[in-house]
Design a protein that fits this description.
Length: 293
């Protein structure tokens, strides 16, 4: 079987938010869909939605298989092939294992308010850090729509996800715009003056901005074609994730494609995760590609 676009379901309305983007990505990549449901071994007496089922584990698995087929039938048709798979175990572990042979993974994230809003759900956060397969996340409130504008935040110190951008743009018959965006963070361009707070160093800003534009232009030259228009934007930003989300709105982006650093431990607690914050803030789906370790 051709490497599929992997989508997971727990039969909830939240999971179904990812269905339309998954179908669209399947068409873009010319790949079948694989719908995965994991019967959680931690709560074998529960059925989807958390209500006690009263069914033995074997019957529960059979019910899950029937449920997945019913969900898959929602997506079948119009040339889309949908395969189904039921596993028993931990959702994050099983999803990560299946992702290893997938062309891409599509996942709906949970929306939390208050303190929980500072982090993604544990499954999404783990995949952002660890998944080597391109991961498309769909946050609450995000609408699926045709991809006409792709925003690509570029870290000039990291290899760009050029192959993925090419795979998303080359098959198109309709024109698409790609904006390469780089946010120059405040720590890189500030100096401390005696008795004063940190200030922007205009010389450093000018040099970094020009260097960034040169790198973006080199990438743009490789991506441009008759149907792919590429624009560049470099900005100063105290919080890069906020700047990226704001730029999404400014250009009415339909998709963000960016590299995930996969930071762990104390470094992640101190620096935070720009990628995870972008996923929470962006008004459109976000596709991440973990950088090689």
């Amino acid at each position: 079987m051709t490497s599929p676009v992997l989508i997971t379901t727990d039969f909830s309305s939240a999971a179904r938010r990812a269905y339309a983007p998954a179908v669209r990505l399947s068409r873009e990549l010319g790949a079948p869909l694989l719908m995965l449901h994991v019967v959680d071994w931690v709560f074998p007496g529960l059925k989807p939605g958390g209500v006690a089922s009263g069914l033995p584990a074997m019957d529960l698995e059979a019910a899950a298989k029937a449920g997945v087929e019913a969900e898959a039938d929602r997506l079948r048709g119009d040339g889309i092939t949908v395969h189904t798979l039921v596993r028993t175990g931990n959702i994050a572990t099983e999803l990560a294992l299946e992702a290893q042979t997938a062309a891409a993974v599509v996942l709906a994230t949970h929306g939390y308010g208050g303190a929980k809003g500072l982090v993604l759900g544990s499954t999404a956060a783990r995949l952002v850090r660890d998944c080597a397969t391109p991961l498309l996340t769909v946050a609450p409130g995000v609408k699926d729509r045709p991809i006409r504008t792709i925003l690509v935040p570029v870290d000039t110190h990291e290899p760009p996800c050029e192959a993925l951008i090419g795979a998303l743009t080359r098959p198109r018959t309709e024109p698409v715009r790609v904006e390469l965006f780089h946010a120059i963070g405040q720590p890189a361009v500030t100096v401390m003056e005696p008795g004063l707070a940190a200030v922007w160093d205009s010389k450093i800003v000018t040099e970094l901005a020009q260097s960034s534009r040169d790198q973006l232009e080199a990438l743009a030259a490789r991506l441009r074609s008759d149907r792919v228009a590429v624009t560049l934007q470099v900005e100063l930003a105290r919080r890069p994730a906020v700047a990226i989300a704001d730029r999404c709105r400014a250009v009415n982006a339909d998709l963000v494609v960016m590299t995930a650093h996969g930071t762990r431990g104390m470094a992640r607690l101190l620096a935070g995760s720009v990628t995870e914050e972008v996923i929470r803030r962006a008004p459109c789906p976000v596709m991440t590609v973990r950088r090689p370790r």
